[in-house]
Amino acid sequence: MAETVEALELTGDGRFAVGATEFTAIDFVTTGLRPGHVVEVAAVRVRADGTVLREFSTLVNPGSGVDPGPAHVHRITRRDLDNAPFFGEVLGDFLDLCQGSVLVAHNLPFEAEFLAAEFGRLGARVPSMPGVCTLAAARGALRLPNYRLATVAEAVGAGEFAAHTALADAYVCAHLVTTLVNRHGLRFTTRPVFPELPRFAPATRLSPRRAVVPSGGTWMADVVDRVPESAFGMRGSLQDAYVELLGNALADRHISDTEARALGAAASAAGMAEADLHRVHTGFVSAMRKLAESDGVITTEEERDLRTAAAALRVPEVLHGLRATSTSSGVRRRVLVLGDGLAVDGLRAAVLDAGLPLAKKLTASVTHLVVGEEVPSTEPRIARAGELGAMVLGVAEAREALGLTPQTRPASVPVPVPQRPVPHAYPPPPPMRAAAASPPPVKLWVGRVLMGLGLLLMFVTVLALFGGAGFAAGLFVGVLGVGGLLGGWQVAERA
């Protein structure tokens, strides 16, 4: 079977600017990790500047009698799917949204494999479409402890979202790609080529799912975002997909034996060896324990949740000797960062990479509020933070106060090539802010104006000398012109 997606790279040293390219961010919820069926599909089409153009989402009936998979994980039951359209019924709408755009997915090889399987079942001959993996692009552009969708979204200030619902994930993925392009300057290493996609009948019915945004983060969600990627062991699209599922299950603090068994069964069916599964679970829980203990405080709640997770994942030995502490021997630092921009994103990434909790909302537990330059002084959370006793700092001050070293962009990681390749019927997911281009700084404009005046004075000097003006006056004006040109160039270069 021909590849469904031709993987492209987005890197800081790419040769081809994104320009007017449009992206279609896609996400599937599936019956398993491999093999399996799609039970929910979503797509969000955006311009490169972040403007949302169209969206599409629906539950998908995988066929009569097909088990929906780990319902404890994705919250989709067989009953939900009985009245949903089949994939073939919505294929026309899906391909119409993708036509002439670059596909985007977090873990593109995983999504492409399921897309290819669905095309194969239908006998649909679809040419290879260009696609970008935001997981691989983020690995090359940001230094983070791990690259789960929630972690990367937090690093670029995308906010909370209903994790593992297809439309919410697609919106966040669209936000990521436009942020990486506009704010971090990533470019294509090869120019996208857009094939003509086949046309199919439009869908006569859709069955979108209601997305419920979490009311607030848990302490374990903060810890999961900071677990280092090295704790997971080997890397690959299957492993990345399993870590994504496991992280989402742990983040809500309520992983049960049933949920853990469903996760393990999906991983085993996909080909993960029992030893690899045990290694991932051991590394994950060990890292969470280490992060929880890093400030010298283990609350009763934390001990209970860690033991519940370790028991469900069959690694209780990892918590040998863990005890809740009655007194604090350290300071719980918790950071909330306001604003958008490259420096702000870099600070968020540095906070996560240092193993510090990155708050999503201003609460009494926040010890440091960091405010980007573009945030107005009238922002109400600034005054409220002072009332709560939190330190209010700029980006540079925060790096010094928190002991964070400036980050360097990691070496680009090649995108793995896949082996195989409406109106809202419910409250919409958190809106994706369009990533507007930042205006040039004032110093840059001043430099340009000085250079322009300098060139103008030099031009006037030449005309005056040819017109018979005095040499001394011409020399004086000429020196002013050269000075203006050089001075303006230096100001613009520094800006």
Concise summary:
The protein contains 17 helices and 11 strands. It has 495 residues and is of the alpha/beta class.
> What form results from the Cα inertia axes?
globular
What strand order characterises the main sheet? 1-7-6-3-4-5
Number of helical regions: 17
**How many structural domains are formed by the residues?**
4
User: What is the CA–CA distance across the termini?
Assistant: 52 Å
Helix content: 40-55%
User: What radius of gyration results from the CA coordinates?
Assistant: 27 Å
CATH superfamily label of the largest domain? Ribonuclease H-like superfamily/Ribonuclease H
Proper CATH architecture of the largest domain: 2-Layer Sandwich
Helix/sheet category: alpha/beta
Total beta strand runs: 11
User: Do you know the CATH topology of the largest domain?
Assistant: Nucleotidyltransferase, domain 5
Mean pLDDT: 84
